[in-house]
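Appendix B, example 12.
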Amino acid sequence: MHLSTHNWMRAEPLAVTLRRIKKYGYESIEISGEPAQYDVKETRALLNEYGVRCWGAVTLTLGERNLAARDEGQRARSVDYVKSVITMVSELEGEIVTLVPATVGKVVPDGTEEEEWTWVVEATKECFAHARNKGVRIAVEPLNRFETYFFNRAAQALALADAVSPECGVCLDAFHLNIEEEDMYGAIRLAGKRLFDFHVADNNRFAAGLGQLDWPKIIGTLKEIGYDGAVTNEFVAPVDRTPAAKYPDMVERNPVDIPPEQLKFIQDHGSSLLTEKFYDDQMRITAETILPLIR
């Protein structure tokens, strides 16, 4: 196992992120699934400069992106988007694309269970075929019920992976597991060799180590199943707007250059634009919690 991180949680130049995570012992990055934001040649040069490899990317399934959409054209555009993320990862010599099939934050279905399952399976198969041609693995990720109605548990993600291909895997996230699973350790064991990626944030979605999750037991269960991929940091710090705020200086008050869609995605997760100091502390705390357990 090795320590990785997402970078969609804060709008900052990639070089700043890479310099920060290298300092704390991260080996790779799961880059934001927005190919238009990254020139491949420049990005590869930065990765080489800082000695950080691309592990993969996560799809930012926001706005009109939805493999479960009733509208055929919308599904086709969503497939094209996922393919563009896969191509970017391939060109950055990454291994994984974590695929969230339905729009994050959408909790009302477009069709019946049977209709949506058919739409998502067909769309994911098309994405999977493109990924196989590009030498990239697909891991479908279940989210908690407050972020998606489509699927929330490891067993459901495995059902989709099985419907796509024996070579399709799953990604699990400790934060979502803690909400949805009767036994989060049993869910990890159920995924077994089909677990291609693992995301980490504590039960309060702050950095690992700032909540109640049992990280030695979680990492120990990953070792038990022979998991050898990335443990990918994905804290999404909730903002407290009351006088009881534990971190009163966590929100960035200065103007930040960020696409409106990305800002909405962050805000829809209960977070906000984070100050560099607070963000840096969260990155450090995750590393201090996880690295001693995976080494």
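The chain has one domain: 2-293. The domain at 2-293 is CATH 3.20.20.150 (TIM Barrel).
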